Amino acid sequence: MKSRDFTKTGPVAMVAHACVLVVVVCLLGAAVSHAATDEADSPLTVYVAVGVLDVDEISSADQRFTINYFAQFRWVDSRLAHDGPGTIRRDITDITAPRFLILNQQKVWSSLLNVVDITPEGEAVFRQRLWGDFSQPLRLHDFPFDKHTFELPMVSFGGLEQQVIMAPDPQRSSLIADNLSVADWRILGYQTEVREIPLTNDVSVQGFVFSFEAERIFTHYVVKYIIPLFLIVMMSWVVFWIDPTEAGSQLSVAVTATLTLIAYHIALAGKLPDIPYLTRMDLFLFCSTLLVFVALVEVVLTSRLARSDRVELARQYDFYSRMVFPAAYLAAAAWALL
Fold first, then answer.
1. Is residue 24's pLDDT more than 50?
2. Residue 301 half-sphere exposure, CB side, CA atoms within 13 Å?
3. Which of 127, 167, 273, 307 has the highest Cβ tally under 10 A?
């Protein structure tokens, strides 16, 4: 068989060969473009792991908590693959990468650079270390016997045109430290979840949420506020053992108890924010103040009876008050605190 010399083919054949080459090049370009489009359209999964290293403070009055935390975001993007030989480091603003935001962060300080470590296979790892304040709305109806869930809602924004899906990292578990700085709260547990996070009434985004549950240690409030309140109210009952003819002594005790309760109201005002409802402590304070005020009214009434020569009737009022007031106060305390 003789080999064919393509250089001696006619012009028609040469044009045909050129057309075939053009078609092949176009098909290859379309395939590459289609693959790139598919990659851009497919969701990017970002694996997240969070570690709360310390909880410095939980402020009920300011509706916030202060923590020291570490987070790792890991994803694979073939567009970031390189020739190696090892991991390279790039600023996150210099590459095509998702950006991450904690929605409730207030004042925070970062101790790590905004850099991404990239392996030759295109696996990217971004690490974040923050210390600062995070807002948290609290329902304080049960104060000081309350417990709350504190959240770190994380979302991805900007940096990529494709959708970003955040998920717990199967290679690294989230955690919270055992020894924490916060003294008046007890950590009960923590969890991670992926859910829709509402931004407005009509708009929500998919995000990653790390949350921990904490319970207030109420011993401080019992010793420093509740027990002294019991003693102050019991002090106001001393007037029932003072003879109604000694109106000056009765009034002195009753007024002293009232003024002491006012001072307690002022002391507790800084522990809570301005909220449109009453807490358990508010109800207990209200019941205490009301009974002390009623005791003051009873003193005025018995003193007036004594001056009207009805001393025996005034003494009967005092006698029954010795039983009625303690019973009413115990019932009110149980209703408010239990």
1. no
2. 15
3. 127
